[in-house]
Amino acid sequence: MSTWEVPGYTGSLELGSGASGRVVLAVHEESGVAVAVKYLSESRLTRPGFVHDFRAEARLLGGLESPYVTGLYEYVESPHGAAIVMELVDGVSLRTLLARHGPLDPEAALALLKGSLLGLADAHRVGVVHRDYKPENVLVVPDGTSKLVDFGIAVDSGTGAGVAGTPSYMAPEQWTGAPASPAADVYAATATFFECLTGRRPYSGDNFAELALQHVEAPVPAEEVPEPVRALVRRGLAKDPAQRPAQAEEFVAQLEAAAGAAYGMDWEERGRGRLAALVALLPLLLPSARSTPRTTTDSARTVLSQGPRPVPARSWLPGRPGMLVSAAAVLLGLLLTYGTPLDAGTAAQEAARALATTSAGSGTAPDGTAAPGASVSPSSTPTSTVSAGPSSSPGPSATGTAGAGGEEPSASTAPPGEATSAPPGGTEGTTAPTTTAPPAPAAPAVKSVTVSGFRQTGPTTATATVDVTTDGTGPVSVTVSWFTGNTGGQPGDGDGAPETFTRSGATTYSITVEHTFQNTGCYWSIHVTTSPVPAGGDASDQLLTRRCDLR
């Protein structure tokens, strides 16, 4: 196992591992924020194809920002390793939930499906197809909401990427290697929904050939699910992708209409309540129950983004009061699980009373031995995008993505504490030894700087990925400037202040940048410079905006 760690982060616990790598719970040394770090395995690090796919995974994630998808902070690559630093989700995987509690009732299954479908919808909106939706890759957090993780084999829509996915959830066209489409994700999500309702997968087989034949030719087993959702299952599992909802967003609209008609307007609230109750019965499987206290150790090795990246969910901070609240949640969960009506006001009062009667004291969070969360299928190869690291400002929680081959939980850390150390004792008159600080690493030569993936993400927003390669691990500064204009091939006028990022500790850096344009113009441009100056010159790119696209 590789001992290389991403500069500026301290690992504390392995969350999951597999053939393609491992996921580690780590703490950003400067801010104390907990993150999940996905390391590419040593055996694959020496194979350019796997490194390329791992880098591509970071690029895809960096261009995708959604409260329903695990976020990415940064991608780091050096001669000693490659790693994706991600949010850390404090939840348990749907696979774990089904294994512990069996099938879900329709309202809970619909609420879970909707949350993860919204994650797919955000991915489809920017042209990304997940290709590996399954129970291992859906995390359920303590409030009953769900989040989609692990974009390890995701690709751009329309890409002919061959046969890939997890067989039990692969659409008929995936078996033939047809170009990736959002309709395949809708199929996999529906297969997972079927499993949530029935406790089994829609099709089975003794081998891949038999399983493929079932997916391609066998009738849709819609009669096995409750009548109100049979039409959803038939549409989602249609053999012909043209007969399925073309995008996840369309499927969400159909789901909401069917659920509202069958179960009333408050179906989603009840469904999330049931999911929250089930998660509350598994408090020791939450990564927050296994995390270590946050530190505030300074680090000069990694300089992070200038502002905090929006993080949709806060980490659950463990401790004695938190464990008492967990106990109260377990009791509430039992009531919900066995059908006793829940009075929300009474529940809140009971939780508050539990905290109010607790004597002060500190306790260590229990260290569980298995905390399942999202996982990566053994066949999956990493693919996704890059983004800046966690903010050095205190606060936002991180969320985790699927581990490389094993279930991956997410976690949060305890409140930050300030570490102090007393000076070493000595006899009077003794002169303290002096030390000389090691010299700072010399600035490396920048071999190349490139811009890729420059695309419009909204009416006034765009994203791009900047790749920098150096010949040493010393510090390098990257400055990104934006421009708007109405003439192709010319940058136009500056738009907003330039952004500067500083990196060190590696020889390859990939930074995803985003910008909201303030000025109007048919053409948007990005220009990147570095210090030291790159040997191959600066990098630029330009795109024609949708409002002016005449093609």
**SS content category:** alpha+beta
What share of residues are in beta strands?
15-25%
CATH-defined fold name of the largest domain: Transferase(Phosphotransferase), domain 1
CATH class call of the largest domain: Mainly Alpha
**Total beta strand runs:** 18
Shape: globular
- Rg, nearest Å: 25 Å
Described by its quaternary structure, the protein is: single chain
Q: So, CATH architecture of the largest domain?
A: Orthogonal Bundle
The biggest beta sheet is recorded as:
8 strands, antiparallel
Low-confidence stretches: 292-326, 334-388, 391-438
Mean pLDDT: 75
Cα distance, first to last residue?
51 Å
Q: What number of domains?
A: 4
How is the largest sheet built, in terms of strand order?
1-2-3-5-4-16-12-11
Q: What sequence of helices (H) and strands (E) makes up the elements? A: EEEHHEEEHHEEEEHHHHHHHHEEEEEEEE
DSSP summary: helix tally? 12
Give the helix proportion (percent range): 25-40%
The CATH H-level superfamily of the largest domain is Transferase(Phosphotransferase) domain 1
